[in-house]
Amino acid sequence: MLSCIEISGSFTQPKAPQKKPQNLPSTELGQWDQFGGKDGIGSNNWALSGKLSASGKPLVTNDPHLGLSAPAIWHFAHLEAPGLNVIGGTLPGIPAIVLGRTEKFAWSFTNTGPNVQDVYIEQSDAKNPGMYRGPDGPLPFKVHQEIIDIKGSPSLTVLVKETRHGPVISDSYARAKRAIDTDHYALALRWTALDIEHQSVVGLFEMNRAVDLDHCKQALRKNYAPMQNVVMADTDGSIAYQAAGIAHKRLLHHGLYGVASAPGWERQYDWNGYVPCEQLPASNNPDKGWIATANQKIIAANDPNPLTSDWDLPARYNRIVEFIKSKNIHSFDDMKTMQGDTLSLAATPLLNLFKSSQSSHPLTAKAMEIGRSVDGDMKLDSGGALIFNAWADQLTRNLLSRLGYLFSDNYGLRNYRSPLLYQVQHANSPWCDDPKTEQVETCQESSNIALDKALEYLSKEYGNDPKTWLLGKAHIAISEHRPFRKSPLLGSFLI
Question: What is the DSSP letter of 15?
Fold first, then answer.
């Protein structure tokens, strides 16, 4: 869902997003799926104050990416009732507008990306499987029954176990057997969204009925999970930012930061309260006249209560900033141009290594004549962009496939561009070496091998004429039918 709203006081329906073409580019601000990348996940929003706007009124822009599906996740709605007049995007089953505007103000979301889930290893009692190890001695598992009604079939009864940290997930998570001895241990999930105090929907109701930006900010205090970067503006000309949601306190340089499972019987890994709303990142009417977020790091590295250690690359944010700083005054059409941008700042740091790569493939000369002209602009009709992305995919596999199932099970779900960029900065990074060979490969040699594999793949998929290789042929927008897409019988008919 792409949206741009000018906060002028008039209340008109936002323009519906243009229908996306069937072949979509791998873009930066409009990020569709890439070779080995995530399925378009990664949102952007920004607000410009009136002093940067052609109309003198603020501009708010949002493009949350949740992947394509049929039916679509987002749909536009206009809710009008006594004390309620709000329009924007919402989700099926949510009786409120999630992203949108009232007559007085508008708001937009991107995911903050805090680490608010911890997995605990719980040690079960060998003599009594109904007990597990606590910090002061054995504790009983809490057990309750969940009944799932199934149309035309008997109901399914599931027994759910809980520890003091949360529900046990290893009983129904096959991959847990790879990580722990499930006969003697269990994995329990602690997650803010499971707290009984969760009031996010109530917060949405109050936002939809808020009469001004201050009331909107108060309603955001009830947003529990997921935490969102909320960028706002009102008809009086104010722009504001608030990280809205609940995150537990993590002390800098202490503990595991949620990147590894913690022993559940050690009290030092227990949660110790939440970060107060007043201490979460916020901004009101900054002097620079704009606010932007794109899942990038939003707090300083020395923050005493870090929200995560796993921020997204700032490439999309940096591109937004480039656009904003490129002109003194912006129009509504400029905002649409920004949303449709196809230059990838996540690709540009790799271009020198890509262009210096050599291959023994017979199509190398023709392919790299095209490939060496690529500048990071992932346009539909770009052959160089396709060759680059195929190469980057193979290079990522070269460096990270040694992680085994930890990589293979997650590649395509997680974005590995950040570790790739970090490693290839060092020509002799040990990650560039292939542990299966006797010689020690440099990053340049690994890059050459990746180009071999990429050209082999592209020639098989798109023929032997590199001039016909276009990014638009590879990146096809498929709206998967939910939930039947994964059905063995129906899946091939419902895409």
Answer: P
Tell me, what's the pLDDT at 1? 65
Cα atoms in the Cβ-side hemisphere of radius 13 Å centred on 104? 13
Residue with tokens 């822009």: 61
Enumerate the domain spans of the chain: 3-112+196-339, 117-194, 348-474
Residue 158 burial (CB count, 10 A): 11
- 280, 295, 406 from 228: Cα distances, Å: 11, 9, 28
**In 3D, which of 57, 40, 42, 41 has the Cα closest to residue 4?**
57
The CA distance from 203 to 198, in Å, is 10
- Reported as a single tens digit per residue, the pLDDT across 270-286 is 999 999 999 999 999 99
Q: CA quadruple 426, 404, 389, 462: dihedral positive or negative?
A: positive
- Strand, coil or helix: what is 210? coil
- Structure tokens of 319? 């591109």
| Residue 261 CA, distance from chain mean position | 22
What's the rounded Cα separation, in Å, for the pair 403 and 179? 14
Residue 456, exposed/middle/buried by CB under 10 A (0-12, 13-18, 19+)? Answer: middle
Arch. (CATH architecture) of 117-194: Roll (2.30)
pLDDT digits (tens, 9 = 90+) for 197-224: 999 999 999 999 999 999 999 999 999 9
The dihedral formed by the CA atoms of 266, 267, 268 and 271, expressed in degrees to the nearest 10: 120
Q: What phi and psi, each to the nearest 5 degrees, are found at residue 443?
A: -65, -35
Token digits for 161? 């176990």
Q: Dihedral, CA atoms, 325, 331, 336, 342, nearest 10 degrees? A: -30
Amino acid at 341: D
CATH number of 3-112+196-339: 3.60.20.10
Write phi, then psi, for 127 (nearest 5 degrees).
Answer: -90, -20
Question: What residues contact residue 428 under an 8 Å CB cut-off, 6+ apart?
Answer: 442, 443
Q: List the structure tokens of 111.
A: 């995911």
User: For the stretch 356-379, what's the b/e string if a residue is b when 16 or more beta carbons lie within 10 angstroms of its beta carbon?
Assistant: ebebebebbeebbebbeebebbbb
The pLDDT tens digits for 455-483 are 999 999 999 999 999 999 998 877 777 66
For 17, 219, 316, 398, the CA distances from 392, given in Å and listed in that order, are 31, 44, 18, 10
Sign of the Cα pseudo-torsion (336, 339, 342, 344, in order): positive
The answer to whether the bond into 17 is cis (omega within 30° of 0) is: no
pLDDT at position 70 is 79
Q: Which CATH number fits domain 348-474: 1.10.1400.10, 3.30.720.10, 3.40.50.720, 1.10.10.410?
A: 1.10.1400.10
pTM (2 decimals)? 0.90
